[in-house]
Every structure is written in structure tokens, then in C-alpha cells.
């Protein structure tokens, strides 16, 4: 490669030693200068529902702990961030916002969307995230390549930000308080983000929220774990009815591409029964169609290959009647990444080490065989 | 001076310059090294790094091309940071994710961000805003399915809402049963029951809400539907809109100097607010071209709203004019969004030729403007 780089004089007028010196000069220059060209990755982590993410005190850091917390004991000791960073020199930043039921803030509020945007801006400026990372030297720098990794409601949040970070969008740079819109620089937060990963995203809501609000939820334990006890506004706006869907509150384009990963494994144990009430495949809590931002109803039933089939007594047959490929998304600039045999809890704590997966149309294959954290690590 | 001495004279300062450049780069970074090194076990507190925003997509710093002719090799040695996209392009062994990301970027950067190409009328994003979806809830034993829907998603306050409900068995045959509904406003206020009338044939049962007979504030309404056959229940929602603005049906058009199509839509505004318009353009043979969007604070009165379609986006559809502004959505921006009924005003432009339209990718155009100091 180096030989092509230097416009050398005709060989008859240059000695071999001169060519060697010249090429060595270039090689040494490349060695010293090359570090500037390839920045580290910075993963900006946006958690889901039910977390007092805006609180941190000493070792009590709910937004950071979200990525290693578990609702099922078999996932104890797992850590999404450990899996994500792997053996790389990449960095990460935690975004913490109030997604609790007690506060009840929907995704378009200043306390959610606004707060996330402000923190992303600060992180991208190289100010750190204000959290104590157990892994040394993992705070992001301003020169990193920035990615967002979001789970559950976090995906809904990022869709609102990305879809209103382009001038001409309906809620461009706007979040809301209880009384009015407020200006928040979504543009600065999202433009320049290389990509947004969503895992178990409640992009078109969750039937769990439907049942809480319609008074028909069965599994109290699962409900408490991920959603909550009542139809407060944060849960109201997680329903699968289109009136609440984030795609109706964004513009026709996103400021950053979104890569969706969906899980289709029920929860372990007795809580797995709750999934029987969800349409199609799901990760125990969110319909796969919602996770993959499929066009159409938020209750659409799709299989793990992201297709809908005719069914008889619950058994699918025939050719697909709908394909949730990249051409059939409900949100713009949204792309399939993977369909993984994992549940909503393991998605965020990497509790299943080497899950099965289903090949999907337009899927991205790097990282096949790894969990969602590992897939991001492998692909980048 | 001997040839060897001359070579050393060249070599030593070059090494020194490269060393100083590398040192400067190291001092501007936080604790992470320029090259991957093992992380130590000692936790650290974050350093405040001088603000140095990374150059952003899609208007990446395109001036960062090598002085040593490395661009052709896909690697750049620069004195300013490469953009994320440039760094990914420089990767020799790209994963399929990298390739997908680059493809998306090239597509995104081809047109202005307010334009979006679509190629099938069934995928018209403006129509999708109004499309009604059936909601199906299957029983646990898979032997019955409750399906419900409403005739629209957005209503004006004096309109009539029609809600449909159907119960089917595993063979897709209608199960005759009675339905009942409850209307709820904003998840908090119970407005009363909805009676469903069975269909004379095997069609769905229908329930109606005549909003002209009562006061229906703007907002989200829910109709919770139960049935007599089993315990399946579900709800449809709809939005009552008071958009406070309307399109008059008047338009004017031109091609600008860059070969972009500008269509101004005339609107009358009754309430000062932020408004959002989205419109889809087709060829005269009804082939889909793309959408545009526009949002702004509008005061009470009349306004001409610019709907801009980038020349290259129209050219990519491959058909000359006239072009058809087929669907327009107007909404008052609020929570929830107040969409006016979909307007199919069908405005045809002049018969522009493809040669009159712009042909330059948007990013290239913006780079050209930036370098010439012209916008």
C-alpha cells in the first residue's frame, strides 16, 4: 500500500535506500497520525420504563444499574455493558431520566424527552455522564463516534427525539410541560449520532399498557416489574392504540437511522404465562411487531421471522400475508437488525449469553449467535 | 552533502513533526489512549474535556482529505477529525452493519431532510397518517378472535364516529354475539355507553357516537368494547380535532434557480399556533415521487405555505411533468396532534421537463454552497 502513496522519481535516478527512507518516513508518520483518524465508539445508554434515572447518589445509580439489574434470578451477575464493551477500548455514557409511574411522564415531556436530549448534548461535548463507571477509562470524549442504545420505553423516547430533530417536523425541538411546549435542542442532540439501536422497543406501545389501562392485566408480578400499577400518563402513552403512538408525533424523516432488535422469548417460569395474552411473538412484555416498528396495528401478530401468516388454532400456514421488512415500517429510516430468542429482562442485562435467533428479511448478520449487546459489539 | 546526509535531513524533521502532532492529539483527549489499550482496574472520575464537537452527519467535514494521496486507499491522515461516516468508509473489513449504515447515509444525504422519497402509492406516508387499523385479539385457546376498528382516526367535533366489532371462530366464521361499548375521554372521564347494532348479514356490528348532539372537546377518546360470548375485550381510540386552520384550495408554483419545485399552499388560520403540513407528490400517471413537510408558527390570517420538492427527488422518479400534489395533511401541533381531514385537492403543476429539474445530490449542493460562501 505504501508504495502507491509516494510519487517517486523514475527509479533510474533514485537509489533503493532513498526509497526505503522515504517509505519509512511515511510509515512512521502514519503510525503517529493514524490514531486521530479512528475514534472510539461511545454508546449512549437510554433506559426504559420504571426507573428513577435522574437520581444518583454514590453507588446508588439506578440508570446505570438498569443495565445489570434483573427481575429473574437466573440473570443475576449479567451485565449488558460488559458484553457491549467486550475487549474494545470503547466508551459509554448513561442517560438517566425519570420514567417512574409515580411521576407519570409520557415520552414527549420535558422531563423525559427534554432531559434525555440535554444529557446527550452534554455527553457529546465531552462532559462525561456524571455516573461512576465501574470500568475505568470508559467515559466518552467529544471526539468519539456516538451511538445510542435504548431499551423498551427508551426506544420510544429516541424515536420522538430523532423524529423531531429535523426542521419542519411537527414538534421540532419541542418537549412539553404540563402547560406548554418548551424549546429543547433535539437537533443538537441527535444530528451527528451515527445510529440508534433499539432493543425490545415499545415503539408502537405494549399490550401490557393496554391491559393496565383497560383493567384486564393478569400477571401482577410482570406488570410491577416493567410497567406499573395504574394507567398514569406514562403508561397511557405506552398503549398500542395509534392515537398514542410516537409515529404520529414525529415528522417524515429521522435525524439518525434506527436499527431495531426484537426479542421473542417469554419470561422464565410462571410469568411466562403472561405472554399468552400478547398478539404474535413477544419478549414477554412487548409485541414483536411493536419492537420492530412494523407498519399497521400495534397489536399486529408476527412470527419470529417478522412475517404474518394465516393461522388455524394458533398454527401458522401458507405464505406470509405481511412482511415486516424495511419497506413495511411504521417509522421512517428504520431498519431491521435482528430477531433474537431473548426476553425483555435479558435484553437489557445480557442475561442470555448465546441466544438462538431467526433469520429475518433485511436482517443484519454480524453478531449472529450473540445477544443484543454482543451483536452491537460485533457489528461495530 | 552526501546522499545519506540529505536523506537524514529529510527524515529527522519529518519524524519530529509527526511526533509533535501525535502528542498534541493525545493531550486533547481524556484518559483513553489513541489506540486500544487494556483498561486499568482503578475507577476514575470523568474529566471535563474542552468542547470540541465531532463533525456531524450528513454535512461532514469533507475537507479532511489526505495530503499524501491516501484518499484512494480509503484512509485519511488529517489534521482535523474524520466524521463518523468517513471513518466507517475507511474501514477495510466492513461488517454488513457498516455497509447498511453507509447505504442509509447516502440515501439520507441525497435529498433535503424535509423530503422523503417513496415509490409505491400504498406506502404514501401522508395517507398512513389517516389509515385505520383493525385491532385483533385472539382468545388463549385460539378458537375465537375479537376484531374492532373505527371508520376514522381523526374527527371534527360535529361528526359521527362509527365503531365496528366482529367475533370470529377459528375457521374465520362470524360468531353471533352482542357487543357493548363505553366511551371514555382522556382515560379519566366516562362519557356513557355505546350500543352496537348487529349486522343483517354476517358483517360486523356497528356502534355510533353522534358528536353533534353533545360537547366533545378536542382530545383522545376511547371506546372500550366487550362482548357476550367470552371475556375478550379491547378498545379503539380516536382523536377529536379542532385544527383551527384550513387549506383554501389555492396554490401557486415555480421552479427555483436550483431546479427545485416550489408549491405554495394557501391556508386560513383562525388561531395563532404552530401548524404542520405534509404533502405527497405524484406524477401525472399516478406514480409516487415523494413527500415534503413544513412546520411553523402561524398567526391568525392568511398565509402561503411553501411546500418544496427537491429537483433530484422528482428526477429520480423518471417522469416529466405535470406533477400532481395529491394529498395534503394539515395539523395544529398540540398534544394530541389535531389533524384536519385529509385534503385531496389534486393540484397539477406545469409540464416541466426532467432537464429543468435539479440533478445534484443535496449534500453535494450544500458542500458547493459552503465552499463558495453562497447559500
Walk me through this protein's architecture.
The complex is a heterodimer of chains A (380) and B (375). By secondary structure, chain A is an alpha/beta fold. Chain A contains twelve helices and eleven strands. In chain A, helix 4 crosses helix 5. Chain A is globular and about 55 Å long. The N terminus of chain A is likely disordered. Chain B is α+β, with helices and mostly antiparallel strands. A nine-stranded mixed beta sheet of chain B has the order 2-3-5-8-7-6-9-10-4, with no helix packed on it. The longest helix of chain B is centred in the first third of the chain and has 25 residues. At the A-B interface, helix 1 and helix 7 of A face helix 1, helix 2, helix 3, strand 2 and strand 9 of B.
Enumerate how many helices of chain A there are, as a single number: 12
Q: How far apart, in Å, are the first and last alpha carbons of chain B?
A: 54 Å
* Largest beta-sheet details of chain A: 7 strands, mixed
SSE run of chain B: HHHEHEEEEEEEEEEEEEEHEEEH
Number of alpha- plus pi-helical segments of chain B: 6
Give helix % range of chain B. 10-25%
- Give me the secondary-structure category of chain B: alpha+beta
Gyration radius over CA of chain A: 23 Å
Provide the β-strand percentage band of chain A: 15-25%
Mean pLDDT of chain B: 82
Amino acid at each position: 500500500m505504501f508504495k502507491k502513496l509516494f510519487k517517486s522519481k523514475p527509479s533510474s535516478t533514485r537509489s533503493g535506500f532513498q526509497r526505503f527512507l522515504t517509505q519509512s518516513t511515511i510509515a512512521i508518520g502514519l503510525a503517529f497520525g493514524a490514531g486521530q483518524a479512528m475514534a472510539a465508539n461511545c454508546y449512549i445508554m437510554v433506559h426504559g420504563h420504571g426507573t428513577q434515572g435522574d437520581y444518583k447518589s454514590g453507588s446508588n445509580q439506578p440508570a446505570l444499574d438498569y443495565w445489570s439489574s434483573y427481575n429473574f434470578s437466573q440473570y443475576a451477575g449479567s451485565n449488558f455493558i460488559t458484553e457491549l464493551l467486550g475487549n474494545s477500548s470503547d466508551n459509554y455514557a448513561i442517560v438517566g431520566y425519570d420514567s417512574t409511574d409515580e411521576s407519570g411522564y409520557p415520552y414527549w415531556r420535558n422531563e423525559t424527552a427534554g432531559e434525555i436530549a440535554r444529557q446527550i448534548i452534554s455527553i457529546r461535548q465531552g462532559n462525561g455522564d456524571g455516573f461512576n463507571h465501574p470500568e475505568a477509562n470508559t467515559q466518552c470524549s467529544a471526539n468519539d463516534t456516538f451511538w445510542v442504545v435504548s431499551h423498551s420505553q427508551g426506544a420510544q423516547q429516541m424515536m420522538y427525539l430523532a423524529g423531531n430533530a429535523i426542521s419542519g417536523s411537527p414538534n421540532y425541538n419541542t418537549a412539553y410541560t404540563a402547560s406548554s411546549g418548551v424549546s429543547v435542542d433535539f437537533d443538537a442532540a441527535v444530528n451527528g449520532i451515527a445510529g440508534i439501536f433499539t432493543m425490545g422497543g415499545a415503539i408502537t406501545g405494549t399490550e401490557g399498557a393496554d391491559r393496565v389501562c383497560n383493567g384486564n392485566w393478569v400477571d401482577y408480578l410482570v406488570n410491577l416489574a416493567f410497567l406499573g400499577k395504574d394507567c398514569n400518563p406514562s403508561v397511557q402513552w405506552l398503549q398500542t392504540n395509534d392515537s398514542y403512538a410516537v409515529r404520529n408525533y414525529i415528522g417524515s424523516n429521522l435525524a439518525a437511522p434506527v436499527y431495531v432488535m426484537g426479542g421473542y422469548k417469554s419470561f422464565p417460569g410462571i410469568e411466562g404465562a403472561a405472554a399468552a395474552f400478547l398478539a404474535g411473538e413477544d419478549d414477554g412484555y412487548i409485541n414483536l411487531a411493536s419492537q420492530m416498528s412494523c407498519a399497521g396495528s400495534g397489536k399486529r401478530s408476527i412470527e419470529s421471522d417478522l412475517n404474518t401468516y394465516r393461522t388455524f388454532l394458533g398454527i401458522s400456514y401458507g405464505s406470509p400475508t405481511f412482511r415486516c421488512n424495511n419497506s413495511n415500517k411504521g417509522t421512517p429510516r428504520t431498519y431491521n437488525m435482528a430477531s433474537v430468542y431473548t426476553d425483555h429482562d435479558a435484553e437489557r442485562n445480557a442475561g442470555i449469553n448465546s441466544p438462538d435467533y431467526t433469520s429475518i428479511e433485511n436482517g443484519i448478520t454480524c453478531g449472529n449467535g450473540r445477544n443484543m449487546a454482543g451483536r452491537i459489539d460485533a457489528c461495530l | 552533502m552526501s546522499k545519506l546526509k540529505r536523506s537524514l535531513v529529510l527524515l529527522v524533521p519529518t519524524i519530529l513533526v509527526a511526533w509533535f502532532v501525535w502528542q498534541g492529539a493525545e493531550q486533547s483527549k481524556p484518559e483513553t489512549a489513541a489506540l486500544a489499550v487494556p483498561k486499568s482496574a482503578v475507577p476514575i472520575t470523568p474529566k471535563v474535556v474542552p468542547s470540541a464537537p465531532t463533525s456531524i452527519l450528513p454535512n461532514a467535514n469533507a475537507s479532511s482529505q489526505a495530503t499524501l494521496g491516501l484518499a484512494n486507499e480509503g484512509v485519511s491522515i488529517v489534521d482535523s477529525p474524520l466524521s463518523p461516516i468517513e471513518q466507517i468508509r475507511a474501514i477495510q473489513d466492513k461488517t454488513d452493519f457498516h455497509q447498511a449504515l453507509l447505504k442509509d447515509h447516502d440515501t439520507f444525504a441525497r435529498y433535503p431532510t424535509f423530503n422523503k422519497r417513496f415509490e409505491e402509492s400504498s406506502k404514501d406516508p401522508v395517507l398512513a397518517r389517516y389509515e385505520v387499523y383493525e385491532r385483533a385479539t385472539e382468545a388463549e385457546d385460539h378458537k375465537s378472535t375479537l376484531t374492532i376498528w373505527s371508520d376514522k382516526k381523526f374527527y371534527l367535533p360535529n361528526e359521527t364516529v362509527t365503531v365496528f366489532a366482529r367475533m370470529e371462530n377459528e375457521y374465520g366464521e362470524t360468531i353471533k354475539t352482542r357487543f357493548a361499548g363505553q366511551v371514555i375521554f382522556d382515560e379519566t372521564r366516562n362519557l356513557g355507553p355505546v350500543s352496537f347494532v348487529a349486522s343483517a348479514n354476517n358483517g360486523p356490528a356497528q356502534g355510533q357516537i353522534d358528536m353533534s348532539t353533545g360537547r366533545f372537546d378536542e382530545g383522545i377518546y376511547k371506546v372500550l368494547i366487550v362482548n357476550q360470548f367470552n371475556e375478550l375485550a379491547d378498545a379503539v381510540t380516536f382523536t377529536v380535532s379542532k385544527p383551527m386552520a384550513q387549506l383554501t384550495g389555492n396554490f401557486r408554483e415555480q421552479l427555483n434557480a436550483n431546479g427545485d419545485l416550489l408549491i405554495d399552499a394557501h391556508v386560513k388560520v383562525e388561531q395563532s399556533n404552530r401548524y404542520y403540513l405534509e404533502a405527497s407528490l405524484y406524477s401525472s400517471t399516478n406514480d409516487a415521487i415523494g413527500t415534503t413537510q413544513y412546520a411553523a408558527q402561524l398567526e391568525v390570517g392568511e398565509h402561503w405555505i411553501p411546500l418544496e420538492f427537491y429537483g433530484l427527488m422528482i428526477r429520480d422518479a423518471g417522469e416529466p411533468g405535470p406533477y400532481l400534489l395529491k394529498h395534503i395533511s394539515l395539523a395544529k401541533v398540540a398534544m394530541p396532534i389535531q389533524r384536519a381531514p385529509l385534503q385531496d385537492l389534486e393540484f397539477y403543476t406545469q409540464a416541466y421537463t426532467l432537464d429543468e429539474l435539479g440533478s445534484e445530490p443535496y449534500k453535494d449542493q450544500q458542500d458547493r454552497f459552503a465552499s463558495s460562501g453562497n447559500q
